[in-house]
Amino acid sequence: MRPIKLGFDKIDKFLYRLGLWGIFVMMLLITLDAAGRYFLRDPIDGAFEFVQDYLMVAVVFLSMSYTYKTDSHIRLELFARKFPERLKRVFFYINNLLPLVFFFIIAREGWVKTWEAWVGNEFTIGVVSWPTYLSYIWIPVGVGILVLRIGFTVAEQVIMDIDCLRQGVNSQDEGRGSS
């Protein structure tokens, strides 16, 4: 499992850094567009659409798996600490398997939409025409990696739980299987 985990970590870091570059390009493009608009009376054509339809989509979806891995997502744990260990384990599986199915559907539909835009040679309508598949592609890539990450986390926990059952050890003593 260790090589798989290291592979996921490298992919996560790469996509996260790509998202960070997207934020930098957004900042630069918006600043130059505003400066051109107010000082030169000549904004950058298509800057708003490019930021809205391409960069923001990439930034959000490329960082999803890294956010899950680093446990930086929003979580409600008000009563969870008081639950018995078995109930915590049940909630762990529910809280991971339901999003796994949900995000799998999103990744699949994102791929279908990307493929249709690619095959249909779709472009945006506006001052600058951009190919729409370049906007859609970030959804199946980012969410697909998230699905693999959640699946890996669940599989890792299943293995830990099976080992604990074989050894008769409580998995609370061994730690959780989050990556």
Automatic annotation (TrEMBL):
Mind telling me which GO cellular component terms the entry cites? plasma membrane
Instruction: Enumerate the subcellular locations listed in this protein's record, separating them with semicolons.
Output: Cell inner membrane
Q: Which domain of life is it from?
A: Bacteria
Known InterPro entries for this protein?
A: DctQ, TRAP_DctQ
Q: Has the keyword Membrane been applied to this entry? A: yes
Q: Which GO terms describe its biological process?
A: C4-dicarboxylate transport
- Membrane-spanning residues where? 20-39, 51-69, 90-107, 133-152
Membrane topology listed for this record: Multi-pass membrane protein
Listed A to Z, the keywords are: Cell inner membrane, Cell membrane, Membrane, Transmembrane, Transmembrane helix, Transport
Q: Does the keyword Transmembrane helix apply?
A: yes
GO molecular function, a single term = transmembrane transporter activity
Its principal location? membrane
Residue ranges of every copy of the Tripartite ATP-independent periplasmic transporters DctQ component domain listed in the record: 26-154
By sequence similarity, the record places it as follows: Belongs to the TRAP transporter small permease family.
Name of the molecule in the record: TRAP transporter small permease
Lineage, please? Bacteria, Bacillati, Bacillota, Clostridia, Neomoorellales
